[in-house]
Request: fold
Amino acid sequence: MGRVTRKPFDIAAFLAAEGPGRRIGNYTAKQVFFSQGGPADSVFYLQTGRAKLTVIAKNGKEATVTLLARGDFFGEESMAGPGTLRTVTASAITACTVLKIGTAEILRVLETEHKFSTFFVKFIVIRGMRTQADLIDQLFNSSEKRLARTLLLMAEYGEPGAPETLIPPVTQGTLAEMIGTTRSRVSFFMNRFRKLGYIDYNGGIRVHKSLLNAVLHDKLPEENASRPKLLDPAPRPARTAKQAKLV
Reply:
């Protein structure tokens, strides 16, 4: 008897269709996939649309952690073990189609299908690198550069394929939360980007390649370039005389 050859595992087909332990759901804008503090029992894969992850602090303040695009996994904390709770709230920004994969099913596929395991681990590593880059961005870059980087990431510059220059609707308050500044500063920077031709916005935000070039060549204007620089005050005569006596 001839050996039965196993059909190669098709990652795209697995993530595109329903099956054992997998269910496709359609969500409208602002609809919640899961809430912070709820039971973590599945992993989600975003097939279409844009979504976001937010967190609420004990004082009630809400902040946007990250934005999600087509091809992103989220909710992977469910793989940590039984009884794990959601650490964030996931909700749709635009109309979304998602594949919900039960924890038991994704663990089974990760164990039996090495091709999918490599694919999934690569995604997790890239997300970790992105998170590290976000932290470095917060520590060392100005809020204007952080805003530029966030807009470029939302437009998917640097990702395979053509960038989606028209990014999904996002408020200046949400952008401020993501880059750690105030809404008024975001408004100031957005107006300056528009005047420089880096973006257009009238309801939606369109990001031009010129913003990417400005970031790559470090040609963004200084954060407070529109404000006069403060000069050191001229020394007072009495203070100068006193310093001369000490010498």
Summary: Helices lie at 11-16, 103-112, 114-140, 143-154, 172-179, 183-195, 209-216, 237-246.
